Amino acid sequence: MNKDNKLKNKSKKKSSEKILPTILYMGFCGLAGAFGGMAMAKVFPKDAPNWQEILGILLVMIAFVVILVIQIFIHEVGHMVCGLMSGYEFISIRFFNFVIMKENGKLVRKKHSIAGTGGQCIMIPPRTDGTSPTQLFNWGGCIVNVIVSVIAITFAILFWDKALLSMFLLMFSTIGIYLAIINGIPLKSLSNDGYNAVTLKDRPDARIAFERSQMILKEMVRGIRLKDMPAEYFDYEIGKYDLDDNIITSMAGMTINYHIDCGNYEKVYELTKYLYDNMELADIQKFIVIAELVTSILITGREKSDVDKLFTKENKKLMKIHQAQPSTHRVWYVYELLYNGDKEKAEKHRKDFEKLAKNYPYKTDLENDIELMECALKMYEVSVA
């Protein structure tokens, strides 16, 4: 089977994987809504006026959102608790864009969001030789969602005569079980907990990559630049590993960032071009690859037509989805200066970058982005001189 056919087959599999979450979401939303509707039917009389019916629908919707937020919180706390039980060190926990991070021995609040995710728990494994326990930490969120959902069902039965409470508890358990399933079924397209747990169980090289990635994040929180970390952390070059795996591909992404920090823009171009042309990437990985490929093309003075080929409708949409990332505005800054020669538009993106940077948790990333923007500015000034 040739490379194009392999990529087509992988793309079909990724598309089919994306259908399953949609089906599950619609099914569990419908079930949770039905429980909420049953509660409202018991509270309001059968001949209730329209405004009461509308109020009931709004209350169900509000309850759904509140429960979802609570269950996501429980999920991430589950990772944290199971990580601590496995000997992991706490670094940060995120709920939507709200981050609590351990910085210089103190807990601080930051802002950071990743499109498509409701939360994230980052912890440092106890070892870096591929022998750290991985299963309890990765399954922890799903386990705790199931436990609290079973408890909720039990209390719903005990208090069945109390309509609002029992139906609220059934909604709570339904959403908790949904989160456990959607995170637990191994889906490569989502890089979810189940996929990570299965991969880490079967692949020693993935376990080492996982341990390295978490260690790198710890050093970044301490203010250490990637270029000042051990070079052996970033040896995920072309041909050395099977990069067709989300955990190892993520380390290839960190290798790209390492070369950017070192100013090795030709290396950046080589690796990003290879990944873009040859790998079926998860959306967050594809975003990183596109962003750094565009940057490397412009910084190394390659043909502008190479950038045109990258900015497909799908890729532009992906960049827009991740516009809450400071690095996205760094890319657009470089693009406006070196592609369009429009300093005014570039400065607007720089202001957006600076706004997002105020509460961004990884300051070393920002230093790197600023240096890249300064490099692009110098190239622009030379071109117009």
Give a quick account of the main beta sheet: strands, pairing sense, barrel closure.
4 strands, antiparallel
Q: Report the portion of residues in β strands.
A: 5-15%
Terminal CA distance = 52 Å
Number of helices: 14
**Strand sequence of the main sheet, in spatial order?**
3-2-1-4
- Give the SSE order as H and E letters: HHEEEEHHHHHHHHHHHH
Structural class: alpha+beta
Give helix % range: 55-70%
Mean pLDDT: 89
* Low confidence ranges: none
What is the radius of gyration?
A: 23 Å
Global geometry: globular
Count of β-strands: 4
Number of domains: 2
Tell me about this structure.
The chain is an alpha+beta fold. The chain has two domains: 17-185, no CATH class; 212-384. The protein is built from 14 helices and four strands. It has helices at residues 3-43, 50-85, 135-158, 163-184, 193-202, 204-221, 246-262, 265-278, 283-299, 304-310, 313-321, 326-340, 343-357, 363-384; strands spanning 89-95, 98-103, 106-111, 119-124. The longest helix has 41 residues, at 3-43. The mean pLDDT is 89.
Give the topology.
Blueprint lengths: L2 H41 L6 H36 L3 E7 L2 E6 L2 E6 L7 E6 L10 H24 L4 H22 L8 H10 L1 H18 L24 H17 L2 H14 L4 H17 L4 H7 L2 H9 L4 H15 L2 H15 L5 H22 L1
Antiparallel strand pairs: 1-2, 1-4, 2-3
Helix pairs in contact: 1-2, 1-4, 2-3, 2-4, 3-4, 3-5, 5-6, 6-7, 7-8, 7-9, 8-9, 9-10, 9-12, 12-13, 12-14
